[in-house]
């Protein structure tokens, strides 16, 4: 889902009020174990289309971890799980600029998830955003759900 935000949102205070430091630390531990390898894989894919590389961004990784955990807790995929996409992006300190989010579930590895996103026109468009320079990638496990593992990728300028 691609969105451009030009002004901060007032509800950020409400969203941040529910986020403790312990929760943020726990969410960060759910980040993909080798997020730099994920950035390399995405960069190689982008290079095939003449696009520049992406680098891992800690704030975007926290936002992705939060989204992955919220979707895992819900047991389903929604760009509004854990708050609106706009509110979650504001949590990174980046209320402005181009940002996009890919969600996925049911795949065990990043490579499987990347292939799934490449096969989906909307998700693929986010991978190939010409302005993209930074990413955050994370997954969260929900063993009792029908999906098992939930993924989130946040792409930004």
From TrEMBL:
CDD domains documented for this protein: CAP_bacterial
This protein's UniProt keywords: Signal
Domain of life according to the entry: Bacteria
Signal peptide: 1-24
Pfam families according to UniProt: CAP (PF00188)
UniProt KW Signal keyword: yes
InterPro entries linked: CAP_dom, CAP_sf
Domain SCP, first and last residues per copy: 42-151
Protein name per the record: SCP domain-containing protein
């Amino acid at each position: 889902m691609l969105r451009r935000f030009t002004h901060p949102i007032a509800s950020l205070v409400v969203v941040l009020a529910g986020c403790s430091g312990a929760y943020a630390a726990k969410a960060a531990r759910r980040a993909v174990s080798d997020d730099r390898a994920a950035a390399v894989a995405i960069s190689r894919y982008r290079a095939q289309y003449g696009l520049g590389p992406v680098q891992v961004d800690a704030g975007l990784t926290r936002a992705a971890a939060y989204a992955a955990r919220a979707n895992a807790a819900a047991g389903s995929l929604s760009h509004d799980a854990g708050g609106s996409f706009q509110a979650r992006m504001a949590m990174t300190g980046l209320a402005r600029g181009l940002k996009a989010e890919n969600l996925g579930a049911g795949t065990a590895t990043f490579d499987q998830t990347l292939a799934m996103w490449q096969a989906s026109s909307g998700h693929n468009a986010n991978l190939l955003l010409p302005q993209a320079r930074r990413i955050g990638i994370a997954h969260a496990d929900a063993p009792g759900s029908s999906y098992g593992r939930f993924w989130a990728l946040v792409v930004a300028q």
